[in-house]
Design a protein that fits this description.
Arc Repressor Mutant, subunit A, elongated, 377 residues, alpha/beta, 17 helices, Dna Topoisomerase Vi A Subunit, Chain: A, domain 2
Length: 377
């Protein structure tokens, strides 16, 4: 296999990861002068063992690429009084003290960061520019060649087109990706990159009357078994419970998928009820969900009749202990219990702060039928 193919197989981000580790190693290096042999050792350490086996035949080509990138990015410079070898490599290099060369870095920032990218952040933080330069250059190339790809893409598609990694521009609901951080620093939005977020779909049931009503009642059920029991009861022709849509939350997924309600014509004027386990994770999901969409006008509340059933099921019996991997967020608990009476709130706190939990399966299909089917009266 040719070296170019091997390098392409490694991928942009494996090479970039090796570069970042190498650049960090050079910054930590105690001496100003670095021998060529020492740079070879640093490069070997910057590659994972599984990567070294892939690049062994082309190590020299990769090494030259990394050294050239370090020079272009102002991390090192060769002693030009020495003669280069046949690969263009010098026997000795020296670190560049960036604290003394910020003006040069700023000149590079002004020349490299093109519109619509904003230079303000990186002019104030030139060292961060050096860390992010590889990605900034790719964005600059995108804007220079924008006319060649005029159409809109999804965020993941654009991310792959520019960076070779479909996940680079979008992190999780809990953590921002590095790409998101960089475009924020540059004052960019997804619109500037001509890309859009795709909505995470959810599984649901809805009644035929949904489209004809002004205000709909929407229930979000965290777990699968309770979702199906709720569906069988609420959609029974003799049910006295008013339900227009039933959404399967699938645990934390609902935090990202909730916005899919817009595809059904639902909006902030509709009523939204959440029902999950009475445990730290269930409480945390509710708090994050309600807080995340509050600024968009959606008001999501706990399904109190369901939670009262869980409290009732826990009366007079020892509750199960919460799994060790669940951590109770006290702010989430406060946001949850404020929807309940003082008595119910006290009991909820007692269970959770005591390390216990009640699964929503305690509100069984039989209990639902007793509550909501008119023929059971």
């Amino acid at each position: 296999m040719k070296c170019e193919c091997i390098i392409n197989t490694l991928g942009v981000f494996v090479m970039d990861h090796a570069y970042q580790k190498l650049a960090d190693a050079i910054r930590r290096y105690p001496r100003q002068r670095i021998e060529l042999g020492e740079l070879y050792e640093m490069v070997e350490k910057s590659l994972e063992s599984k990567e070294i086996s892939n690049v062994s035949r082309c190590f020299e080509t990769i090494f030259v690429q990394l050294i050239d990138t370090l020079i272009r990015n102002g991390i090192i410079e060769p002693f030009k009084t020495l003669k280069p070898n046949h690969r263009g490599l010098y026997s000795r290099y020296k670190k560049i003290n960036h604290s003394e060369n910020n003006d040069l870095i700023k000149v590079e920032i002004i020349s490299s960061v093109i519109q619509p990218m904003d230079v303000s952040y990186y002019l104030a933080h030139p060292k961060e520019y050096l860390k992010d330069k590889t990605y900034i250059d790719k964005l600059a190339d995108f804007f220079r060649n924008r006319h060649k790809t005029p159409g809109w893409l999804t965020v993941n598609e654009r991310s792959y087109e520019i960076f070779g990694d479909e996940k680079f521009l979008k992190g999780s609901e809990r953590a921002r990706s590095r790409g998101e951080s960089i475009i924020r620093k540059l004052g960019l939005t997804y619109d500037d990159l001509y890309c859009k977020l795709t909505l995470e779909p959810f599984f649901c049931f809805l009644k035929d009357s949904l489209a004809n009503k002004q205000e709909r009642k929407v229930y979000i059920i965290e777990n699968k078994d309770t979702f199906w029991s709720f569906k069988d009861t609420a959609f029974d022709s003799e049910s006295i419970q008013e339900v227009d849509m039933l959404i399967y939350g699938e645990g934390r997924k609902i935090i990202s998928s909730f916005q899919f309600v817009s595809e059904y014509g639902l909006n902030e004027n509709d009523e939204y009820y959440y029902f999950g386990d009475l445990d730290p994770e269930g409480i945390n999901i509710f708090a994050e969900l309600s807080e995340h969409y509050k600024d968009r006008g959606y008001y999501i509340t706990p399904y109190k009749p369901g939670y009262r059933q869980l409290l009732s099921a826990a009366e007079g019996r020892a509750v199960s202990k919460v799994p060790k991997d669940q951590v109770l967020n006290k702010n989430s608990l406060a946001a949850f219990v404020k929807h309940f009476s003082q008595e119910d709130g006290y009991r909820i706190r007692e269970i959770l702060l005591g390390g216990g939990y009640v699964p929503q399966e305690a509100f069984s299909a039989e209990k639902m039928r007793q509550m909501y089917l008119s023929r059971m009266e």
